[in-house]
Structures are given as C-alpha cells and as structure tokens.
Amino acid sequence: MALLYEPIKSSFSVAVLTIVIIYCLGIGDIAYAHIEGSNTVTNPGGVTGNTSYKKVEVKELLGNKIPLDLKFTDEYGKVIRLADLITTPTIIVPVYYSCTNVCNFLQGGLAKVLPAVKLQPGKEYRVVSISFDETETPELALRSKKTYLASMNVPFPEDGWRFLTGNKEEIAKLTDSSGYRFERKGADFIHPVVSIVVAKDGTIVRYLYGTTFLPKDLSLAILEAKEGRIGEAVRKIVGYCFSFDPGKKSYVFNLLRVSATAVFLTAGGFLSFLVLAGKKRDRNNTRKT
Questions:
Q1: In whole angstroms, what is the distance from residue 208 CA to residue 36 CA?
Q2: Measured on CA atoms in the order 63, 68, 71, 73, is the torsion positive or negative?
Q3: What is the pTM of this model?
Q4: Where are the domains of the chain?
Q5: Which of 179, 91, 176, 164 minimizes the C-alpha distance to 134?
Q6: Considering the domain 44-238 in this protein, what is its CATH number?
Q7: Which of 131, 187, 232, 272 is the most buried (most CB within 10 A)?
Q8: Per-residue pLDDT averaged across 24-32, rounded?
Q9: Pairing of strands 57-58, 188-190
C-alpha cells in the first residue's frame, strides 16, 4: 500500500506542476503589446517623404529622476508641483490636447485598458497627461479629461488621471530629464509615441511605446516602479516569469527559463520517487529474509 501511495503522490505533484505551467503558457500567449515607434523616431506620426526629424527621439534615461519641483497648471487652473501628484507610481503621458491624430489614440488606448488594471487609481498608481504645447490652456486640458474619463464607461476617480499644461521652460526641463525630444511643425508637433513610468521619487523605471496597451504591461510596469519599497517578493516572481524586451517594447514570458525549471523539478521529483521506492523495497526484502 505504501509503495502504491508514493507514485500516486508523485503523479499528483507532476499534475499540479503541469497545470501551473499550462496556465503560465496561457499568459505567455498574450505577453506582447502592440509595437509602434522605436527608440529613435525618424519618421514619426505617419510623416511621408524623405524628411528626417533628427531631433525627434526618445533617449531612454532609465534610473534618471525627473525634477519634482517643476510647476504646472492642472485642468482646473490651479498651479501644482509634480511632487504633489507623483506620490505613487505614475504613468506620464506626453501629448498635446489639440492633436487630432496619434495623441488621441494614445490616451484612448489608456482609457480603454485602465479599467482592467486591478490596482486602485489615485492610490496605487496615477496617470498624468502633460501637454508639451505651451500655448494650450487648462480649459482644453479639462475638456480632454472629461472626454477620456467618459469613454471608459465605468467609474474612474478624477484624481486617478490628471491633465496638465505648462510654460515652455518647465516643459523643456521635464522632457530633457526624460529623454523625450519633439519638434514643432507649424501648429502641430512631430513627436514620439511613448508613456513614461516613474516611481514616486521621480525615478524613471520604464518607457511604454505605442498606443495599444495590455493590462499586464501596465500592471507589471507599476510593480516595477514599486521595486525596493512594496511587493518585493511578488516582484522577484514576476521578474522570474517575465522580463522586459527592449526590442519588442513589452514584457515577455520567459518560456525557456520556466520550461527548464519545470523539467528540472519534474526530473527531481521522479528521481526522489525512485530513491524512496528503492529504499522501501530494500526494507521489505530485509524483513522477508
């Protein structure tokens, strides 16, 4: 009976491990976000022809801190410091509100996915849209806010997504510190399409490219912003199963690493079963003799 119990126990362990791996593989299937743009944008915003905007780029400054003493004007006309808003992991969205093209898709993409992020906006994370057009007004920022919050079709706290405008000097300090370079072209702008994730002390932890997001990408980026402060154990697990692929601009599932671990654990379990079974058989043979 004891000999029969051991293989059943081992089989059960292998079955549980298999279920876990299948579940992880299911996550891996959706581990890629839509890719748009690159680190250096030479033909951004659908611009055609041979024109090359060499000044328009994202120079990733991971680990750099944005200055939190910068002052902007919020959607209600109140002057506010970034330090008063970036009190939790924050997704900074550089846009201009009068944009009729990609900025709408960028903020619309966030509005579509934010309700699926299982974290509390305003407390566990915050989104801050910041216009890099110094001529835009708080009234325009408020109009944009109402548009995107209404598009969610679910309750979303107003403090969870703020919309700012500012003067040219403050905007330049923010974009320079984050490696975000854009160029005015008449009444419009040529600019990268990227969101910048910062920790509550202003440290840049991740750049998220494109206009389409997965809840997983945002959630993992927010967890990354909390590294060393909150959820260290969770972060280690996440870091083992997922890693950020700079080429694909998304978190990707470490299939080889997890598969190798699964094989190792399964082989180890089977070896343990053989050793234990052999010892029990030897003891039984000894008793018979």
A1: 10
A2: positive
A3: 0.64
A4: 2-28+255-288, 44-238
A5: 164
A6: 3.40.30.10
A7: 131
A8: 34
A9: unpaired
